[in-house]
Amino acid sequence: MSTQEELALARVALTWLAEPGTRSVHGLVDEFGPVGALDLLLDGGAPQQALRESVAARSRAGDARVVAAEALHRADRLGVRVVIPGDDEWPGTVEQLRTLCLTDARRRVDVETAPPLCFWVRGSWPLAEALDRSVAVVGSRAATAYGTHIATDLGYGLADRDWTVVSGGAFGIDAAAHRGALHAGGLTVAVLACGVDRAYPMGNAALFDRIADTGLLVSEWPPGAEPLRPRFLIRNRVIAAGTRGTVLVEAAARSGATQTTRRAIALGRRAMVVPGPVTSAMSVGAHELLREHPEARLVTGLAHVLEEVGRIGELAPVPRGPERPTDLLDDDARSIVEAMPRRGRIGVDALAARAGLAVRTVLRKLPLLEELALVVRREDGYAMVTPSRRSTRPGPAASPGGPMGGDAPLPA
Amino acid sequence: MSTQEELALARVALTWLAEPGTRSVHGLVDEFGPVGALDLLLDGGAPQQALRESVAARSRAGDARVVAAEALHRADRLGVRVVIPGDDEWPGTVEQLRTLCLTDARRRVDVETAPPLCFWVRGSWPLAEALDRSVAVVGSRAATAYGTHIATDLGYGLADRDWTVVSGGAFGIDAAAHRGALHAGGLTVAVLACGVDRAYPMGNAALFDRIADTGLLVSEWPPGAEPLRPRFLIRNRVIAAGTRGTVLVEAAARSGATQTTRRAIALGRRAMVVPGPVTSAMSVGAHELLREHPEARLVTGLAHVLEEVGRIGELAPVPRGPERPTDLLDDDARSIVEAMPRRGRIGVDALAARAGLAVRTVLRKLPLLEELALVVRREDGYAMVTPSRRSTRPGPAASPGGPMGGDAPLPA
């Protein structure tokens, strides 16, 4: 029986021999355990030729066990810890990546989506606890002012409701979401595609330090690891699997953020998309996702996001136009109000004729309308009360969002 | 057997006795024909008490037959014609309103949605022909610059593809859609809630004249009829039923435009919604519709609208990021490019180690990469070719919409 230290070293070595997510490696770990799998690979015993070649190639650059030992030692000096299955803080949710199957997956990054073998963590929160109640907010690096505003708001609002905000630490939407959460004094986690000791991108160095102080920096790659381009896509599966849902704020066509959202959908996580102006290239990816995936839910703000990821019962309020006195009226009463001339007086008979109602119906309803200060009685008939004279509440004709819709007549 | 003239007079009289859409009246017309139904009503023989009262009330204001005759005479003087079922230009599509059933319909306007008894038409096009290939573009009166821009574009694009643009002649989105169609020299139809001789709203008077010159002004109410507020909602069922689909561009919560779209959905017509910034009150109704009705399709422009209403095969192109040379590569070749150091040279063995590939695989792929001018051979190894030196096409690292998504490393 190996110790956690031996298991950690083996898992770190395996991650160095083949990029995280490689299914053949994960299969061998399932079969022989990390230590057995490592021995097998280093003895050139991998059943898959591609894997044998990859291991041989990496081995020419060094001894996997030595490299792993050095990485663990270096991490220790940097205050970075390694987390593996069996540790209390291992997030079980990422194990669901075993079952992840992306439709028409052809590229390696869409096929090799096995669970992580280990996480390198910087920050004091236990990883599993930090991710327990978490939402991912992702989007384009080249975000617009609109997208940045939305992402900051969501980050703030989610953190304010004690949700952990997870993102990728990139420029644009990612950074805005992290910052929003920090402003709320909440918990935020950046899942990186390089070592947690490396500030990539450089411009976010200060942000990463603030995240590490109050939240977590997490990576599958050891301290010092470079942000090679494929790693960003490999990393995205962790953001999708580690959270209850992913909110896509802005994304260009074919962007990596849409790809994280597709992984969330494939994993049965909540996939949420914030629409934007159709004139904005930065919303093309978001709109395409909404058109292609019925599972992706259009969300316009915090309330909708909480409705998706929150407990049952946290329902977002349906937006309503301004309350109007006429909302209280039945059809007959409303017909009378609508038949009232906008200026001058009208007799009860003429009013009944215009409203298409019996005179006695009109006589029965008028007192209520006077009560509501919608009409006023004059010696020679009835007159309409103009909104201004009635109250500060917008009157029937004054409100564009009224029940008559965009095209109700304006007061002449 | 009555003549079309007698039938027209009866239908006009019936429309005056009870607002268009009243199901009880439509039922009597089905049973006894327009003339018989009119006689029955005027003899106070309506089975429904509400209808009897309404008829009695209206009759106090005048003799229905006389009023109808005067209306027809006046229309004739104004160059306005009445169109009824049996006429060649009667649009059969509106008859589907018989089957319209709105969910939780409580208000009169949601219940009384029977087909029109007649149309008053101003303009030379035959009504049925004008509506045969038509799309409704509707939205809020209080439109933003964004919404107005989109509606004008759609109106122009649809008219340019020989689609008739139908709307309500209101300020904002309606007017923008009509204007777009006129700019394209296309056909546009305004379905009004008052007499086709009345310019309502006043500000659109010139627009109405232009529409009448080249398109059509249509109404269920006779010349001179006032735009009473409920009539706008009654009218909306015609816009939904008379067109192949309805595009909602901007709408506040509870706006009349969303109500037209709901009618389109209930009628099995294409319902299309243009999203907007979630920060805009004028898009709240649009986003709610998309959230509540899976049948409502998110559209971002003309191509999507044509895909919905057009013949099968008119499919909108899926937006793509810029083409990249690396798009052509298989996984191994891509891994090699991605493992190339951004600056300086690298030997084949080191490159193989970084890429996690066998040396011979790397040697097999390098010629292709040289061919594509992605890498260049130097005496002491291989170097990356920077996009600028390669071509004008955006290179792997240069494009935010790249396959690595929003967060690929920037060239240092």
UniProtKB/TrEMBL annotation, chains A, B:
Similarity-based family: Belongs to the DprA/Smf family.
Record lineage: Bacteria, Bacillati, Actinomycetota, Actinomycetes, Micromonosporales
Comp. bias regions, Low complexity: 394-412
InterPro entries: DprA, DrpA_SLOG
Span of domain Smf/DprA SLOG: 105-309
Region (Disordered), start-end ranges: 385-412
Entries under Gene3D superfamilies matching the protein: 3.40.50.450
A Gene Ontology biological process term: DNA-mediated transformation
Pfam assignment, any one: DNA_processg_A
Organism: Micromonospora sediminimaris
Protein's recorded name: DNA processing protein DprA
SUPFAM superfamilies in the record: MCP/YpsA-like
